[in-house]
Amino acid sequence: MRKQYHFRKVGEDTYIWDVDQLIALSRHLPVIEVSLDQIKELHEPYWFPKRYPNTLELIEHFKLIQEANLAYPIILCPEGRVMDGMHRVAKAHMQNLSLISAVQFEKMPQPNFINIDEDDLFYD
Fold first, then answer.
1. H helices within the chain, ranges in order?
2. Is 121 inside a domain boundary?
3. Above 80 in pLDDT, residue 1?
4. What number of helices (H) and strands (E) belong to the chain?
């Protein structure tokens, strides 16, 4: 799996979670089924919130959606927002599924970084 981070604006700050650590923290959580209708991010800018993507960027996301493995549950924060798994959500939607497997934190984990530029993060 490629190195990924989850970014979220909290007030004026940007909180950043290492997805590998989110996966490790969520391993003990029960797997639930969530209706795709509940996934708010399907109706919001997600991968490109600040600009329009170019065609090659879209193609790269199409490939990632095709490769997404629905056997792995998505990770939700306590409020039900996606912290990991949007490509799986997109794939499930494209396959006309109504439910997706998920795990959901009861308490928000501490971010790994706050206000770090994306370019300064480690990517494999």
1. 19-26, 55-67, 86-94
2. no
3. no
4. 3, 7
CB 31 within 8 A of CB 103: yes
Phi, psi of 31 (to 5 degrees): -85, 130
Return phi, psi of residue 30, to 5°: -70, 145
Which residues are CB-contacts of 62 (< 8 A; sequence separation ≥ 6)? none
CATH classification at residue 23: 3.90.1530
**How many domains does the structure of the chain reveal?**
1
Q: Give the angle 18-71-38 at the CA atoms, nearest 5°.
A: 75
Q: What percent of the chain has pLDDT over 70?
A: 98
**Structure pTM?**
0.90
* HSE value, Cβ hemisphere, 13 Å, CA-based, for 75: 21
More confident call, 96 vs 61: 96
User: 119 in a domain, yes or no?
Assistant: no
Q: Pull the structure tokens for residue 53.
A: 């993507």
